[in-house]
Amino acid sequence: MAAEKKLHKQHRTASNVAAYIALIIISIIWLFPFVCIVLQSFRSFNLEPGGMVNYLVPKTFSLDSYKWLFSGDSQFFKWYGNTLIIATFVAIGQTIMVLMVSYALSRMRFKGRELLMRFWLILGMFPGFLTMICLYFLLKNFGLTQQGAIPGLILISVASSGMGYYVCKGFFDTIPKSLDEAARIDGASRARIFLTMTIPLSKPIIIYTALTAFMAPWCDYIFASYVAFGCSDKYNVAVALYRWVNTNDYQGYFTRFCAGGILVAVPVTILFMCLQKYYVEGVTGGAVKG
After folding, report:
1. Closest CA to 216 of 125, 75, 93
2. What pTM was computed for the model?
3. pLDDT (tens digit, 9 = 90+) per residue, 254-280?
């Protein structure tokens, strides 16, 4: 018996060691491109000019690229501000929209409810960029392209957000309906129950919805480049950074591109590190069958 326990313990230890080794290798492979970008962002474009080089660690560490981003020669922080405005308003608008739609589908029963949910799920299977041409001409008719690209991008992102109800609805389904029924008996309206009872109990899913809503426009390139085409003042950072290395001097802008990418990643990384607990609770809490 003791020999079996010892053998089982050795087998479990060997399995754990193999699993950790595999995870370390995967982590190294996954992190390697990010490490390269960080190191290249500290390469001086004056002392070590050129785009891609055949060495990883800079010969001379420098903040030239970061200083250039903060200088008046760069519009980087204008584009950064555009991205922050779009992402913030989209996060707020999408969160409100998704919460209201999810609560209605979770708590209310009405004719066509099941058909509507299935229809939205089917629509969600098609990639959004299939509608880009139609949406572009629609926004153009309202003056929401190029100079009006920022409100146009906000409108499109918020208007379609209700179809992403499924995770949030799954979370609301886990909240006992007896609480709603007790409040209804006491005379509370649906709106009051939603605002004073359901929302305070839904902090994880609110944070999850806001984070995912913030991430989409923060990293958006395809639709943002389409709507703001030809108007550099309304670019977001993804479009602007691509223009640097595509239409400008690639050799001179590569290290600045890397530095800009690092500054773009900082706020999202901080948000996820600070709110990771609630993000995970929101995902696991909403991953139920409703």
Report:
1. 93
2. 0.83
3. 888 888 989 988 888 888 888 777 766
